[in-house]
Amino acid sequence: MGVVVKHLCLSQRTKIHHVDYGIPSLALKLDHTLRKCALIARGIVLRKGDLQISKQMEPFLDLMNIEWNAKVLSAALRTLRQKKMNPPQLLPLTDDLITVNKYLENVMKESTNKIRNSFNPQMWAKLAAVTSCRIILFNKRRSGKASGMTLTQYAWRPNWKEQSTSKIKATLTPIENNLANRLTIVEVLGKSRALTKVPILLTLNMKDAMDTLLETRIASGI
In the chain, N or C terminus with fewer CB closer than 10 Å? Predict the structure, then answer.
């Protein structure tokens, strides 16, 4: 059994007598698959009342429990860990990011103006897609949460202008005041079970596009 698994997973022995798998994930899947097939086969013979064949299958399952972890699973997990170490970081070029951002900003402004002047369902769908892309790109460290932001979360966002006071603003630097006036924060739930809040930042153009989408949402049939 071990020889077959090593052949399927393209294993090779290293200089320090370790076994490395070319396809370590396949070895992990075979563990579950072989056990499941053996249990299904044993269930079939038990339904037929053939206890002799059922007993003949017990050594295979016992051998899986005794030797699989040491001979197959440990090597597969070690290979997976080694492949995850020092992976190549493919970073996008700055010029490409600037080009994408400019394109999204221009399309957002153009689509917002067109929808306000004369509603078009196709233009509404285009604005929704472009706005979503812009929000995800702007919040790239929280892209998963940004893509899952709900309408309720956006509607319940805190309003800095209404909640802030002159005393709070006086303690901020000009840059901080400018950021507070230009950025909108939408809080969404994080992955933690402690209900951790994750902030999603929106610029003025994003907020304007979102408000336009909400105002024309009923007309679009959503």
Answer: C
